[in-house]
Amino acid sequence: MQTIGEYKEYTRQLEGEVGKWHHAYDSLMVERNALVNKLMATEKFYKAANEECDRWRKRTMELEREIEQLKTR
């Protein structure tokens, strides 16, 4: 049978361990959120870059058509 002192000591030990797990979880969530934000920013960057590439591709095609038209004149 546990004494009250042993019970209190055991409870303090458990609270300390639970506290460590809570801090570890909080740290993990902070890191996870930072990674999610970085991923979202990267996706936004690549989307904008792809849109810019598409604009340049279209403009290049327009210029090539203009060149062909000028050649046939």
Question: Your description of this structure?
Answer:
This protein has 73 residues and is an all-alpha fold. 95% of the residues lie in helices and 0% in strands. The chain has one helix at residues 4-72. The chain is rod-shaped and about 105 Å long.
Please give the number of β-strands. 0
Mean of all residue-level pLDDT scores: 95
What is the molecular shape? rod-shaped
What portion of residues is helical?
over 70%
Taken in chain order, the helices and strands follow as H
Please identify the structural class as seen in this structure.
mainly alpha
- List unreliable stretches of 5+ residues: none
Report the portion of residues in β strands. under 5%
Give the end-to-end Cα distance, rounded to a whole number of Å.
105 Å
* Largest sheet: number of strands, sense, barrel closure: none
Radius of gyration: 31 Å
By DSSP (H or I, 4+ residues per run), the number of helices equals: 1
What can be said about this structure in brief?
It is built from one helix and no strands.
List keywords for this structure.
about 70 residues; 1 helix; single chain; mainly alpha
Describe the secondary-structure layout.
Blueprint: H1 4-72
